[in-house]
Amino acid sequence: MNQKEVTPKNIVLIGFMGSGKSTVGRELHQRLGYSLTDMDHLIEETMGKKITEIFKEEGEKAFRDFETLQLIEIAKQTDTRHIISTGGGIVIRPENRSLLRKLGYVVWLDAPEEIIFERTSRNRDRPLLNKKNARQRITELLAEREPWYRETAHLKVDTKGLDSGEIAAGILESARYFFTQPA
Predict the structure, then answer these.
(1) 20 to 30 A Cα–Cα from 42, which one of 6, 35, 96, 103?
(2) How many domains does the chain have?
(3) What CATH number corresponds to the domain at position 38?
């Protein structure tokens, strides 16, 4: 039995907030024609409110519970040619890390801390960073999550100096190889 028969041909993007998952997801969607599932947008649509509101009104645990439920629903789909862009904290839970790997080819977009800070500082829709010491919080969260990103990913892409087209091209080449190799 080969990898192709075992693993769905989904490409799953993980990484810290601001690492480019949504942008690269759209690029991959355009190049492959696979449907695109942006989990943050899906959660907002399903819940009928912004993620910042969910965090504020219901707390992070409730958000993480719902995020896991959405991931389980995505894993149940029989149509297996998707680009799935996840939220930055999805790797926190062990069950999510396991589900992500079962979904397909998992790519960790790793952006430098200074780029993450620059991108996220312009956006008030980042509930974990809406604090005085956002830069320090980024450092702490990156250190906490890095082992989980590493454990979950089939491929780590250092995005420094690359545009979304270059990142997508590299992912597609690696995914093509991954899906044709024996298990």
Answers:
(1) 6
(2) 1
(3) 3.40.50.300
